[in-house]
Structures are given as structure tokens and as C-alpha cells.
């Protein structure tokens, strides 16, 4: 096997083959970790600016300490680590549908795994974030009905570019109102999207949250020699 590329794990899932790959970045010389689902790239450690921004923009809306936070989508762990970097956070639940991704963090196959698993504030929940958001018991199997100060989501590519059509209902006004029930008064919902701001989705958000806005996050893409952009949507429940 080449020293420049290694497939660390591969396993089938109901929505496609899940694989973890590590490659040596020739320009910088560092290891780059990539997660793929079928032929789609879910995440690369080369591009993490917007994943960190999701945490910082969402939590930047909240004051005080002891914040209880849910992150939907574990991935390589950059959003979760950015959440834990906030001293105001008291607890973090990371909901991930692909159990292989949780295994990679627990087994130390991913660089951020040891730090996430060692932090006493964080806990992984294996489950379908979208099904839990639509249900009445919420995200914490140890405390049904528990509500949170913030829910931050990075799962689908965008509200229109879905990994699985089963999540489509989440992005509707009814789906977003169901999610809002799991937030405390004045709580924050933030969503990452790889697409430009979408006026129709912002309108759907406004049916469930107040102060809705879309923040564009720009970062360099040296592979394409251009600036790349993602969007973070933010809204709050009524105080």
C-alpha cells in the first residue's frame, strides 16, 4: 500500500458504503483525513473553517454558562471540538447515524477522537438525528424530553442536496417547528449548508424561529485556486 494513500476502514451501511481514508498532502506534507459515503465526499480535514464557524456562530448567540448543546453529525469532529472549546458549554451530545464514524473516534483512528472521548462534557449518541428531531422524546436517550440551549447541524450538503431523501421533511416549516420544541426558550438553531443562502429555506426557518439570518463563511480552496463559500443559517426560539 502506498505511503501517500491508505484506506483505514470500509463498511456497508443502508445508505451506501462508508469509508475512511488518509492521504499525505504533498504541498503541506500533513495527513489529510477524508470520509466518503458511496461516491460522495462527506468531509475532509483539509477544509474545516465552516465546520468550526457553525459552532462559533451558533454559540456566539448565547450568554451565560452551563450551556447544553446538541451537534447533529459527528464527521471528523471539528464542530464538536469547536463547541467544547467554549468554556460556557456544560454538556455536548453528538448525534451520529453512522455507527462506523463513532467507532473511528472511539478507536483513535481519527486525530480528534481521543480529545472528544476524553472530555467529560461530551457523549456520542448513535441514532438518526432527523427521526429524533421529529419525535417527542428528543435527542438524549438517558433523559427523554430534555431540552437544550443550542442545536447545531451539519449532516446534509444543504437543505436541497440531501444524503438521504428521508431527511427532506426536516427542512419544511413543520419539521423545523418540531425541532424547535427540543430547544429551551431563547435557544439557538444553526445549520451548515454548502450552498449559497437560500431565500425559500430562510422563509421556512422564519416560520419556526426568530431573528433568522444566513451567514456566508468564506475560506481558501487551494485545490481549485479560488475562494470557497458555505452558509450557516441561524435562528432562535422565542425567549
How are the elements arranged and paired?
Layout: E1 5-13, E2 16-24, E3 31-37, E4 40-44, H1 49-59, E5 67-72, H2 78-84, E6 89-96, H3 99-106, H4 113-118, E7 122-126, H5 129-134, E8 148-153, H6 173-180, E9 183-193, H7 199-206, E10 210-221, E11 226-236
Parallel strand pairs: 5-6, 5-8, 6-7, 8-9
Antiparallel strand pairs: 1-2, 2-3, 3-4, 9-11, 10-11
Helix pairs in contact: 1-2
Task: Write a structural description.
- The structure is a single chain.
- With about 240 residues, the protein is of the alpha/beta class.
- The chain has a single domain (about 45-235), classed as Rossmann fold (3-Layer(aba) Sandwich), CATH 3.40.50.150.
- The protein has seven helices and eleven strands.
- A seven-stranded mixed sheet has the order 7-6-5-8-9-11-10. It has a four-stranded antiparallel sheet with strand order 1-2-3-4, with no helix packed on it.
- Helix 1 (about 50-60) packs parallel to helix 2 (about 80-85).
- The longest helix has 11 residues, at about 50-60.
Main attributes of the structure:
four-stranded antiparallel sheet; seven-stranded mixed sheet; alpha/beta; 7 helices; 23% helix; 239 residues; Rossmann fold
CATH homologous superfamily title = Vaccinia Virus protein VP39
CATH architecture classification: 3-Layer(aba) Sandwich
The level of helicity is 10-25%
Distinct helical segment count: 7
User: For the terminal residues, how far apart are their CA atoms?
Assistant: 56 Å
The H-and-E topology, N to C, reads as EEEEHEHEHHEHEHEHEE
Uncertain spans = none
The number of domains is 1
* CATH level 1 name: Alpha Beta
Rg, nearest Å = 17 Å
CATH topology: Rossmann fold
Number of strands: 11
Chain-averaged pLDDT = 93
**Coarse morphology:** globular
For the sheet with most strands, the description reads: 7 strands, mixed
